[in-house]
């Protein structure tokens, strides 16, 4: 058990390091936020930041213009998104557009490696719209990579990540295609979100030492992603070794070792070790 927990801590620390060095997957595939209403037209519907019994806030031309400015910012202009989004939320804390702004800020913060603010914005977005698949998938991906297995709230965080991941997968199964997206683009965006959710589940099950379940989820994550995360490949190799699937572990480490970056050296080292185990031990019967 001590060796296993040591491996968990090492893998989580490595995942956190790599995750903060690169933006989360699927950042360019977000569901578009609700656009502002055009002059003379009713505002589009969105879950507002007030109680069910409250009357909706009146339409405000200045607020509409401010949201339009935020909405039209390029996805690559992350710092500007953060600045304009934070200013909007401060000025219009009860706006019908708050959820959309929080949702987009969730992705913007993770792109700048600001995980604490990303988590806070994500929770705010989900309070206002519990079925926001963009936020659910991203939260499912991030939380278990940041969990300290020794922390008192570790199980609580893992439970939350598992809930978000499964909810995301369920919602994506029935997600209607926006008219503005082609079938190919919709399928790609959907698969990126599914990959993030399955990766999150893979990490959750790894923490809980459910290695066979972890392998199943990580295999899905790497198949669905257009550019699989090398951390997913590495962790997949780890859990495949734990289940004595040494030949499959060699393949996973090999895919990880093919990717240039901070993971490459460690993946090459793990690859050589797995090759020796594969040569010395027969594969278990299927």
Characterization of this structure:
The chain is elongated and about 70 Å long. It has 2 domains: 1-25 and 140-279, Alpha Horseshoe (Serine Threonine Protein Phosphatase 5, Tetratricopeptide repeat); 32-36 and 45-131, Serine Threonine Protein Phosphatase 5, Tetratricopeptide repeat. 66% of the residues lie in helices and 0% in strands. The protein is mostly helical. The longest helix has 25 residues, at 183-207.
Summed up:
This protein has 286 residues and is an all-alpha fold.
Give the helices and strands, then pairings.
Blueprint: H1 2-21, H2 61-71, H3 78-91, H4 98-111, H5 115-128, H6 133-146, H7 154-173, H8 183-207, H9 211-224, H10 230-242, H11 246-257, H12 264-280
User: How many individual helices?
Assistant: 12
**What structural class do you assign from the helix and strand content?**
mainly alpha
Counting structural domains, the number is: 2
Largest sheet: none
Could you tell me the strand content as a percent range?
Answer: under 5%
Could you say which overall geometry the principal axes of the C-alpha atoms support? Answer: elongated
Compute the number of strand runs: 0
Poorly predicted spans: 1-7, 16-23, 37-54
Distance between the termini: 27 Å
Mean pLDDT: 85
CATH superfamily of the largest domain: Tetratricopeptide repeat domain
The arrangement of helices and strands along the chain is: HHHHHHHHHHHH
CATH architecture of the largest domain: Alpha Horseshoe
CATH class (first level) name of the largest domain: Mainly Alpha
Helix content: 55-70%
CATH topology assignment of the largest domain: Serine Threonine Protein Phosphatase 5, Tetratricopeptide repeat
**For the CA atoms, what is the radius of gyration?**
21 Å
